[in-house]
From TrEMBL:
Keyword Transferase listed: yes
Any coiled-coil regions, as ranges: none
Pathway, per record: Lipid metabolism; Phospholipid metabolism
Methyltransferase domain: residues covered: 67-161
InterPro entries: Methyltransf_25, SAM-dependent_MTases_sf
Protein name listed in UniProt: Methyltransferase domain-containing protein
Reaction(s) this enzyme catalyzes, per UniProt: phosphoethanolamine + S-adenosyl-L-methionine = N-methylethanolamine phosphate + S-adenosyl-L-homocysteine + H(+)
Keyword GTP-binding included in the entry's annotation: no
PANTHER family reported for this sequence: PHOSPHOETHANOLAMINE METHYLTRANSFERASE, PHOSPHOETHANOLAMINE METHYLTRANSFERASE ISOFORM X1
Annotated organism of origin: Streptomyces crystallinus
Alphabetized UniProt keyword annotations: Methyltransferase, Transferase
Length: 257
């Protein structure tokens, strides 16, 4: 089994298990508190502050085409498409996730204004320069080849478009280490926004997972709950050195709108 197949199977099981219970979503909402974006049902670090930043940095016009790369069950892309009145394309490596996203879109957007595809970020099924804006929240780190994924995002982005991507680094990460992969993919870094409250939100969430271990094992099963708890124990000691960023990328030669 290839790394891509293993990743797909893992995320299929992840989304299937969580779609059958509201416990994980309730803990997520509790961890984010007053900035929790109600109704998104996202399992990423996205909060209302990030949604505002994404909408501002994308700077899309009505009717343009937005790509949600690593869309999961669609919450972030659907919110942005509804708010900005754009069309939406979502891709995710998990067919379970894209099925759930397409089902949600029927209730949130006009017919024909959203489509979801099962594909890896490194092989996007779209023509060159086809997409007016790209959002990628907490998904790029899962790509087996991040450089190739960034190059694909660059390939499909319209010359005047922007890609807005979340990334976490260590506090001592030099600026060159953040910017070099961007340049290697053909982008330039237009804006860098900080998310100072993101590590604390993950800290609260991981501690909630640990304190609700018995309930998680009961509703998700030992395998899925075990993966969550292993992540919590692995990541908690690292959060004090975590710096959460939002990168807004564009083509070096892009002009005004």
């Amino acid at each position: 089994m290839t790394a891509e197949q293993q990743l797909r199977e893992g995320f299929d099981a992840f989304y299937l298990a969580r779609s059958q219970t509201r416990l994980v979503s309730r803990l997520h909402a509790q961890a984010l508190g007053e900035v929790h974006p109600a109704g998104l049902n996202t399992h990423s670090s996205c909060d209302r502050t990030l949604l505002t930043t994404l909408a501002k940095r994308l700077d899309l016009r009505r009717g343009q085409l937005l790509l949600d790369a690593g869309c999961g069950t669609g919450g972030i892309g659907l919110w942005l498409a509804h708010t900005l009145q754009t069309r939406l394309i979502g891709i995710d490596i998990s067919p379970v996730a894209t099925h759930l996203a397409a089902r949600r879109a029927r209730f949130l957007l006009d017919p024909g204004s959203a489509a979801f595809y099962t594909a890896p970020m490194s092989r996007l099924p779209f023509p060159d320069q086809h997409i007016h804006g790209i959002v990628c929240v907490d998904a790029l780190s899962f790509a087996p080849d991040r450089t190739e994924a960034l190059r694909e995002l660059h390939r499909v982005l319209h010359p005047q478009g922007r890609a807005v991507i979340t990334r976490a680094v260590r506090h001592d990460t030099p600026a060159t280490a953040i910017e070099q992969p961007v340049r290697d993919a053909g982008f330039e870094l237009e804006h860098l926004d900080e998310r100072p409250n993101e590590p604390a939100a993950w800290d609260r969430l991981y501690r909630l997972w640990i304190s609700h271990e018995a309930a998680l094992r009961r509703v998700l099963g030992d395998q899925q709950a075990g993966r969550m708890l292993a992540e919590a124990h692995r990541m908690l000691p690292r959060l004090s050195d975590r710096r959460a960023l939002v990168l807004t990328l564009c083509r070096p030669s892009h002009g005004g709108r």
